[in-house]
Amino acid sequence: MSMARKLRTLLRERKFITSMGIDTPVHAKLVEKAGFDYAYVGGYDVSLALLGLPDVGLITETEMVANARNIATSVGIPVVTDADTGYGNAINVIRTVRNFEAAGVAAIHIEDQVSPKRCGHVAGKMIVSIEEAVGKLKAALDARKDQDFVIIARTDAVAATGGGLDEAVRRGKEFARIGCDMVFCEFPSADIEYPKRFAQEMHEAYPVLPLYFNYSSNLKWHEFPLTTFETLADLGYKAMHVSQACLRPSMQAVWDYAVDLKARGA
Predict the structure, then answer these.
(1) Contact between residue 54 and residue 48 where contact means Cβ atoms under 8 Å apart
(2) Residue 222 DSSP label
(3) What is the per-residue pLDDT across 11-54, written as a single tens digit (0 to 9) for each?
(4) Which of 6, 13, 144, 225 could form a disulfide with 149 if both were Cys (CB 3.0 to 4.6 A apart)?
(5) Of the candidates 5, 19, 46, 81, the residue with the CA atom closest to the CA atom of residue 213
(6) How far apart are CA 224 and CA 129, in angstroms?
(7) CA–CA separation, 238 and 27 (whole Å)
(8) Is the CB of residue 169 less than 8 Å from the CB of residue 202?
């Protein structure tokens, strides 16, 4: 069974599946050992870990694919990878899909931001027209060789200039209409009403469509008692990850050790 088919099987058989955001093969192995269903490779995570640079579209497709290949070959669970904007126009998206698929990952998500993109939780995001976004996603769907390879359509419309929740829903429905396997909406704040309404309106039109949720560590969702994985699944979200869940604790641990070692001198 391919990893893409394994991911689809998990989505079909489980109420929901979860992951921690990772950036390296060793983190992927830890996530697998801990019993998570899949490994999520975040663009922010990899950009910071490999390049020491922020998530503003600086990491390239080549760097992301190479890292994803190392991760995918190190574990026996599906790997879902951030593919940013597809690294260009619809023509670039074709190459992006084929390269990630060849690297052994099970799924990628492509967002509707302009290029160069920004982290989903910073101000000043801008989105391409819905026509351009749809064109790129159609190219992604057509480019895959294995029809089990999962294409996740992400919209950043909620917090983007000229966007909003209604626009995000409009885009999500259009992405579902053209055949995307899953829809991912990025939410700008820890307000449960945003994901609740998005899921309700999406499932009114597409009742069985899997929805993806970014349980962003930036927004401290864990401080809200109603936003457990189980509750998010009850709202209609099928797959979810905690972003930077490996990077942040490891950075803190190294920092604490470095400060202590420097102070002790041995």
Answers:
(1) yes
(2) G
(3) 999 999 999 999 999 999 999 999 999 999 999 899 999 888 87
(4) 144
(5) 19
(6) 34
(7) 23
(8) yes
**DSSP for 60-113?**
-HHHHHHHHHHHHTT-SS-EEEE-TT-SSSHHHHHHHHHHHHHTT-SEEEEE-B
- Determine if the peptide bond prior to 210 is cis (ω within 30°): no
Cβ neighbours for 200, distance < 8 A, ≥ 6 positions apart? 236
Token pair listed for 184: 């991912």
Query: Against a cut of 0.70, is the pTM above it?
Result: yes
**213 — phi, psi (to 5°)?**
-130, 130
The active-site residue, picked from 119, 180, 185, 246, is: 119
Question: Mean of the pLDDT values across residues 152-165?
Answer: 91
Output the six-digit token pair for 161. Answer: 């200039």
Query: Among residues of the chain, what percentage have pLDDT more than 90?
Result: 75
Is residue 180 part of the annotated active site? The answer reads no
Give the CA-trace dihedral at 111, 108, 147, 112, to 10 degrees. 0
